[in-house]
Amino acid sequence: MTLAAHLRFPKVPLSNGLQIPILGLGTSHDGGFSHDAIVYALTECGVRHIDTAKRYGCEEKLGKAIIESGIPRSDLWVTNKLWPGDYGYKAAKKACLDSCSQMRLHYFDLYLMHWPESLQSCNCSNREMRAETWRALEELYKEGVCRAIGVSNFQVHHLEELKEDCSVVPHVNQVEYHPFQQSNQLMGYCRREGIVFEGYSPLAKGQVLRNPTVLQIAEKYGHTPAQICICWSIQNGVVTIPKSTKKKRIRENCQVFGFQLEESDMAALGSLHDGRHVTWDSTHVE
């Protein structure tokens, strides 16, 4: 029997009534895509949430893998991201529609602004460019091309400005989140504002897997360090998207719903925050 036959991933409600699976599979550039791994995740592991971005360069290949899996489009949650080089009203709309075409999809379940700083040359501030770009996403949302819209790597001040400048509050903010980088102030703000908090790099690119506290807790529960960290993230209510191109790892990462960490172990993992980033740091972007 496949893992998919008995595994049902919990979902988290968005402010517009949609529900996003709390666990997904991320992709990335530089070897972060595998056709066979995507098909395996969808058909054998019950994964229904796939996260990608134009930046990763795998849209066309990912679209083919989704089709090959045979999973009905209505059963899937597909997230894509708008690269900062495509910011601005016209460029953003074109980029989204081009990404849909590349993936052979009629819509995205979630479309995110990838970064708070624009790579477009213009005589305007980052705030003005974010607002102009967001208005394009609002239109795509109203047109049904994007069922939900959000941002990635946005800090509180970016979200505050966007809320003042536009009419739709982002449904999701996707940021780096793992025991070493917890962003609790940002998480609290998002929850007060009805923005779902989503975390990428839950294993800190493997750095947490060697941590003595994580190893001790993993031994206690008879699970792998990766499963402990993913479980910790999910128990904190964070939509979590680990990345892997290895079938064994994907299966392992999906087997995190049969146990719960005790409060003392949640607290021990929570105490590991040291502020390090394993990806980009947008804290100082204006």
TrEMBL record:
<feature type="active site" description="Proton donor">
    <location>
        <position position="56"/>
    </location>
</feature>
<dbReference type="GO" id="GO:0016491">
    <property type="term" value="F:oxidoreductase activity"/>
</dbReference>
<keyword id="KW-0560">Oxidoreductase</keyword>
<comment type="similarity">
    <text>Belongs to the aldo/keto reductase family.</text>
</comment>
<dbReference type="Pfam" id="PF00248">
    <property type="entry name" value="Aldo_ket_red"/>
</dbReference>
<dbReference type="InterPro" id="IPR018170">
    <property type="entry name" value="Aldo/ket_reductase_CS"/>
</dbReference>
<dbReference type="InterPro" id="IPR023210">
    <property type="entry name" value="NADP_OxRdtase_dom"/>
</dbReference>
<feature type="binding site">
    <location>
        <position position="114"/>
    </location>
    <ligand>
        <name>substrate</name>
    </ligand>
</feature>
<feature type="domain" description="NADP-dependent oxidoreductase">
    <location>
        <begin position="35"/>
        <end position="272"/>
    </location>
</feature>
<protein>
    <submittedName>
        <fullName>Glyoxal reductase</fullName>
    </submittedName>
</protein>
<dbReference type="InterPro" id="IPR020471">
    <property type="entry name" value="AKR"/>
</dbReference>
<dbReference type="InterPro" id="IPR036812">
    <property type="entry name" value="NAD(P)_OxRdtase_dom_sf"/>
</dbReference>
<feature type="site" description="Lowers pKa of active site Tyr">
    <location>
        <position position="81"/>
    </location>
</feature>
